[in-house]
Write a structure and sequence with these properties.
heterodimer; A: 309 residues; alpha/beta; six-stranded mixed β-sheet; four-stranded antiparallel β-sheet; 34% helix; elongated; B: 253 residues; mainly alpha; two-stranded antiparallel ribbon; 2 strands; globular
């Protein structure tokens, strides 16, 4: 796949001396959805702001669609849509006018059919003649999304798009993201809702302290880093972990009704076969078996703690 | 040039003006009428003529200038300060536009509003006094240049301001005194000679003098000096704005 966003050694030192980005390298392919995960103050918003032209980077370079963000800013920015983290809307303007304004700013001719389509998608069509200050916060966020989409961006930055929004909007958002993915739009999403990244991203980049700690395909990441848990429900309660199973680190629940075995999918063998053999030779009757994959959240917390470089 | 962007900003700004049309037009008309009552009728009736012009007519160019300058500054400064204040400036910064296009959009709209107000005050003035414009072409040129240059100046104030108080500060502390002392209501020749010299350092004197010349054919300073003064002022403002966008001063961290 063609590379559409390329970031090389991008750094940002704010006037106060705070080093928000310490040489970020990142490459994003056309059409992929990248989730940028990181705790507060990790540099997520600064990275997006630098790429979109809101802050000036102090070092390194970046390009979008092959256009340098400084020397070729016009061509680069034409490709970019941005949904900011903070809700910022002109309070007295009509919804439809503020969306039209955004389209104009990006050098596009007025296109009422497209704007109607976007507003309908976001359930804003009925509110098109409302003033933005009359809307709820969730609705305002929809307006911001409409403003970012109305100039048909090829790269969409969503900075914490679902922070503090209702479940309905989050679902709608995901639906819209799916639709955009089908159109081949590249999406960069910052979030600290790991479930969100898990649900929609193709690739995960973890950022902390102004550095990208890792970028990895989501599935690979979960396979590599993931731990799985095997839970065995017993027919009859057991009083203690059978001796043959102690070597596996199996834990017995308090009521003695189930055994839990944690294993690493990275290992050559998971030890499940031998474990089950040992179980039957101990004469334990099984009622049910289930496995659960550790979530991205657990992986993420683990990464940040380790400070993987 | 990103013309759709310039047009989008211009239309957006003009809409704001028309949303508050009554407030925008009513206050200059009322204040102008008050000036006419006080200076034209009450005081003016005791002053015969200034440089061959009745006092009521004499103050018209100065009054128009006073309103046009303050309106141009307040419209342009508010126009760019507001997006900064509410945070919508991110959109301007992330759009494929350059500083010139942003300035043309905002300053163009502010200058248009100031021009409209200037014309309305002229019409209002006609209701009070008999006034003829001797050089209409020059009058329009001076009016336009003043609208544009003071809108540019207002734009700078809007970017510089970090709160609403600062937004009011410059017009109140600098512009109003300069206009009042700039011969809006009197001829420079009426001052003692030493004060006449001091006055020549006031840039507004040149604007009002040139503008008044286009009405009555009389001026305190040569018309060419007026044109040069306004040209230098415009160039200075443009230079400062270019620097602002180059360095991102107070708009971009």
């Amino acid at each position: 796949m063609r590379e559409i966003v390329k970031v090389e050694g991008l750094s940002k030192v704010y006037a106060g001396g705070f080093e928000a980005l310490k040489g970020v390298d990142l490459s994003i392919c056309e059409g992929e959805i990248l989730a940028l995960l990181g705790p507060n103050g990790a540099g997520k918003t600064t990275l997006i702001s630098a790429l979109c032209g809101i802050t000036s980077p102090t070092g390194g370079s970046a390009s979008i669609g092959g256009h340098d963000i400084i020397t070729g800013y016009r061509a680069a920015r034409r490709l970019v849509g941005l949904v900011p983290q903070e809700i910022a809307l002109e309070p007295f303007e009509l919804v439809i006018n503020t969306v039209r304004f955004s389209r104009g700013l990006f050098g596009k001719r007025r296109d009422d059919a497209l704007i109607e389509k976007i507003l309908r998608q976001l359930s804003l069509w009925d509110k098109r003649n409302a003033r933005t200050r009359e809307l709820s916060d969730a609705m305002k966020r929809r307006v911001l999304i409409a403003k970012a989409l109305c100039h048909e961006p090829r790269v969409l930055f969503l900075d914490e798009p679902t922070a503090g929004v209702d479940v309905e909007l989050r679902r709608d958002m995901w639906k819209i993201v799916e639709g955009l993915r089908a159109d081949g739009v590249t999406i960069i999403l910052t979030t600290h809702y790991i479930e969100e990244a898990e649900a929609i991203a193709d690739r995960i980049a973890v950022i902390d302290g102004g550095r990208i700690l890792l970028t990895e395909d989501k599935v690979t990441l979960m396979q590599q880093m993931g731990r799985k848990t095997l839970r065995i429900d017993l027919k009859e309660p057991a009083t203690a972990v059978p001796d043959a199973l102690k070597a596996y680190g199996v834990v017995l629940s308090e009521d003695g009704m189930h055994l839990t075995y944690t294993y690493d999918t990275r290992g050559e063998g998971t030890g499940i076969t031998r474990l089950l053999q040992a179980l039957s030779s101990e004469g334990l009757a099984l009622r049910d078996i289930q496995t659960t994959q550790s979530s991205l959240e657990e992986i993420f917390v683990g990464l940040i703690k380790e400070g993987v470089a | 040039m990103n013309f759709p962007a310039i047009w989008a900003i211009y239309v957006y700004e003009m809409k704001r003006f028309f949303r508050t049309l009554m407030e925008s037009l009513l206050s200059p008309v009322i204040s102008t009428s008050l000036y006419f009552v006080v200076f034209g009728a009450a005081i003016g009736s005791r002053i015969d003529q200034v440089e061959g012009v009745t006092y009521g007519a004499f103050i018209v160019p100065g009054l128009i200038m006073l309103s046009v300058m303050t309106q141009a500054i307040s419209n342009a400064s508010f126009g760019i300060y507001f997006p900064k204040f509410i945070g919508t400036i991110f959109e301007l910064l992330s759009a494929p536009i350059n500083f010139l296009e942003i300035v043309i959009g905002y300053v163009g709209a502010a200058a248009t509003k100031a021009l409209l107000i200037g014309v309305i005050i002229l019409i209002t003035a006609k209701l009070f006094v008999d006034i003829e414009v001797m050089h209409p072409g020059a009058m329009i040129a001076f009016l336009l240049l003043t609208c544009v240059s003071f809108s540019l100046f207002g734009f700078i104030i809007g970017i510089w301001s970090q709160n609403f108080q600062q937004l009011q500060l410059i017009p109140l502390l600098v512009i109003t005194p300069l206009v009042f002392l700039g011969g809006a209501f009197y001829s420079i020749s009426m001052l003692p000679p030493s004060w006449q010299t001091v006055t020549l350092f006031n840039p507004v004197v040149y604007l009002i003098s040139g503008f008044r010349w286009s009405f009555f054919g009389v001026s305190d300073v040569p018309v060419v000096a007026s044109l040069i003064a306004i040209g230098v002022f415009t160039a200075l403002c443009l230079g400062v704005i270019w620097w602002i966008f180059k360095t991102g001063y107070r708009i971009k961290s």
